[in-house]
Amino acid sequence: MKKILLTIMVVFAGALAANAQKFALVDMEYILKHVPAYERANEQLNQVSKKWEGEIQALLNEVETLYKKYQSESVFLSDTQKSKAEEAIVAKEKEASELKKKYFGSEGELFKKRQSLMSPIQDEIYNAVKEICDKKGYQLVLDRASGGSIIYASPKIDISDEILQRLGYSN
């Protein structure tokens, strides 16, 4: 009898603890849209990206020009001249490929630039979320924008506007 009573009390206490947890939602897309520093950082990244894409395209244009020249002159070239021209084309292609990897690779310059520009913004938002959670006792905060598995959420638990106010970007 004592075991049954103890089991019921443990289950009841667990149910109370589960109900006592507080949850909140944020919409990171909404928050970032209202943070001017994020828009400026995105613009900087787009400008740098376009500049680097231009450099790579210029190299690829050189490759194309070399290849067309090679095709038109190949009948007049000796075997050694052909191999030199082919090597020059391959070298330019390799240079373009390496430049693309340097700028746009997984650890490339664009990745590093994005991290340096976005990390302070993300840290500021994280700290605002943490302060609000500590103040209001939230144990879990979900991102509505990236959470594809959230089917419905009450607008009452969305703290996005509160975060913007904490960051100084009130509506």
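^ that was protein a. below is b, sequence first then the tokens
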Amino acid sequence: MTLDRPEALNALSSEMLHELREVLQEVARREDLQVVILTGAGDRAFAAGADIQEMGKLGPLETERYATLGHEVARLLERMGKPVIAALNGYTLGGGTELALACDIRLASETAQIGQPEVKLGIPPGFGGSQRLTRLVGRGRASELIFLGEPIGAADAERMGLVNRVVAPERLLDEAKAWARQMQERGPLALKLAKAAIHQTQETGLSAGLDYEIKLFSLAFATDDREEGLRAFLEKRKPEFKGG
């Protein structure tokens, strides 16, 4: 999937968010799609944030609807029953960072610039950055990025755990596709259950999360994929998962 407004550095207008929400809803329903890669058109930006020209015309009520739309898109990425890889090619700022945070894995080009610059406009993050960034990198790092509003390079983002890996710009999509192919060889139901368990950590405390993991683990043992996976391991062959 490609955020395709390169003339505006793929800035997230309400029209673009509406389209993205519709596409994500369709992707979530399709059983033939096992892994999603999200990137930006061109080599200058993943998404340079919200559409500032549009935001400048909004009042408080319209802004609330706009922010709610951004949160809906992020939740679709986060709760989709399949892994989502963000391939960050260039400017990844504001709402762009917040969409990337809602993805499961983030690969960054060496040229990526990542940040939450909203305070420079007199506003806080609005698409979930204050919550997801804090959970990912900790309160101190998140406060630094949000309060200063300065972007960081890909190498610094990797050191703090904001991105999983940094690659050369020309290798970004190839690397993302290589990871996707590896995931396609795993049990699709197992990936879905594992993702649900991981994201439960953002909703509950440790004890409730551990109980949830037990339920999902037990559920997997009622599936054909579990039987195939264990049999293939014992027979020293590649499993043929069916997603059931």
